[in-house]
Amino acid sequence: MLIVTPQQMKRIDRYTIEELGIPSLSLMESAGRAIAEEVLDFIRERSAVSVTGNRGAGTRPDGSAKRGVTSTAPVLADTLIAPFDGAEREHWLILTGKGNNGGDGLVAARYLQDAGVKVSVLCAESPERFSGEASAQLESVRRSGIPVRPASEPGDLAKLDFTAYTGLVDALLGIGASGEPREPYAGLIRAANDSGLPIIAADIPSGLDASTGQTAQVCIRAERTVCIAFLKTGLVQYPGAKTAGEVRVRAVGIPQLAASRIEDPPNAYLITERSLRGVLNIDLSRDREEDSHKGTYGHALVVGGSRLMSGAGLMASRAALRIGTGLVTWALPAALLPSVVGHVPELMVAEATAGDSWNRDSADTVLKLAEKMSVMSIGPGLGRFDGDTQWLKKLWTESDVPLVIDADGLNMLADAGDFIAAWGRRPNVVLTPHPGEMGRLLGVPTAELQQDRIEAARKYAVRHGVTLVLKGARTVVASPEGAVFINTTGHPGMSTGGTGDVLTGVISGLIAQKLNPIQAAAFGVYLHGRAGERAAERREHPASLLAGDVIDSL
Ligand SMILES: NC(=O)C1=CN([C@@H]2O[C@H](COP(=O)(O)OP(=O)(O)OC[C@H]3O[C@@H](n4cnc5c(N)ncnc54)[C@H](O)[C@@H]3O)[C@@H](O)[C@H]2O)[C@@H](O)CC1
Ligand SMILES: [K+]
Fold it and tell me: This protein's superkingdom (predicted)?
């Protein structure tokens, strides 16, 4: 699924209206109708749940939270828009801003009324200030007999009372807004959140930065967000992904081709089976050739492990085996051998240094080992040692084996400063930093880069000519060409030591099996997350999940 920035969305809107000649009002009509359909769908789901056991809104029948992103084809209008039993018990308040987002909400009000739901409209500003299209919609709403009142007078906010309503539509601010919501928007957002009523957001929750996913001090907490035409980047990164609730992307008549025809077209995708297959051209069946042998599936070299962190090398190696690599060799300090040998009988080991930790002289041994390898992963449990950046430079410059660099391998890169200027570009490199490591690579505080993870990852990947995997909930994968893939699989139970080492092993193993770095990184984070979800389901409580469980679920 394509993901766009608000700036790209505005260009797509303009192209659709001006170049394709599709009237703006007709797009607004479809958008409002889609929002109404989603409200009706929400009402039906909620009443079904309360009949069968009152699990509360926003949960699946199995009780699990219903989150994430779905794309729904426009539902056959007559089935949803028709009046239905129980509609009259509902009274929805449409919170309406003066721009086109408000216009979408006003159209929704008409369709909801038509379905038998009682609706009222609260305008954030006096109607004279409404934009042309929103103003036209407001007039139609009035003529349809829907009660409309403005909340623009200063004393009004204090008097707001939402107890008469059963739900709210947030059509206050969309992608045309910027910065902290001003009054009375901020007060309305606060009151909406405090009401305890379910909120369905039009396009984006008001107060969300639709580009970065950062929330303003006041931001709508939605049960569901009906995203118009294309998924926005701010909805797929935290905290935006949380405050948006369940995101449903609805087509409104803006053709897909418009996205490819604008200047600086979008190049970001949600990682789904469809985009893995389509955009990244990956055969997801993972079928083994009938006449294959272990050599068909590559040979991965894991360079890592030290006295106090031998498990990391072991987990990366085991994960590489589990993901289907033909052969895996773990290069380790000799003293680790007695304690690890036999734990994974399928694994081969190579003594790369004497003693129990790494040293700079081991580079030649590693280079020799790497000659026959399909991929080399550097970092899990490696530790730091004297001259380690020079050691890494040697591996970077004197071997042409694809590299996956993680953990202390990344810290070495950070210490090397502008390593691209000093060592030169290199094809086939995957870096897998968590936000702390990414901060060190960029030389900025972690919190700063987390403000806009997608752009941070994209810029770094392009500037350094690497595939970058910025880990964390909604992992961002960026290619050297600037394409971005956002992962939605995974489970908070995976926030435990060792899952990063598992990911390194998975990505390395996929490269060994002839996927290119961006394919391996995107498919790898997807599979890693799915395995984590499955592992979490198998535990009595996900907090007890261990990285090893993720390997076993691969
Ligand atoms: N043809 C189109 O352009 C379409 C637009 N659509 C809807 O229109 C929205 C974008 O509409 P607009 O561009 O009119 O903008 P919005 O409706 O998002 O709101 C912008 C308005 O809020 C004001 N504003 C900006 N920042 C503010 C702040 N911090 N606090 C308070 N007010 C602020 C601006 O002066 C402007 O009037 C989309 O999110 C979507 O919902 C959809 O109807 C689909 C078609
Ligand atoms: K909104």
Answer: Bacteria
For a pLDDT cut of 90, what percent of the chain falls above it? 87
**30 CB less than 6 Å from ligand 1?**
no
| Model confidence at 157: pLDDT above 90 | no
> What pLDDT digit, counting tens, does each position of 272-306 carry?
999 999 999 999 998 898 999 998 999 999 999 99
Distance CA 181, CA 100 (A): 16
101 lines ligand 1 (CB under 6 A): yes
Residue to mutate (ligand 1; options 4, 9, 18, 101; most atoms within 8 A of CB): 101
The answer to whether the CB of 13 is under 6 A from ligand 1 is yes
The DSSP output letter for 303 is E
Residue 52 has pLDDT above 70, yes or no: no
What protein residues have CB closer than 5 angstroms to ion ligand 2? 170, 201-202, 206
ipTM of the complex: 0.98
Distance (angstroms) between ligand 2 centre and the Cα of 49 equals 26
* Full set of structural domains in the chain with CATH: 25-251 (3.40.50.10260), 278-285+294-553 (3.40.1190.20)
Contacts of residue 247, Cβ cutoff 8 Å, sequence gap at least 6: 68, 69, 70, 224, 225, 227, 231, 235, 241
Average pLDDT over residues 79-107: 89
- Angle (nearest 5°) at CA 92 between 91 and 96: 150
Over residues 34-44, the mean pLDDT reads: 95
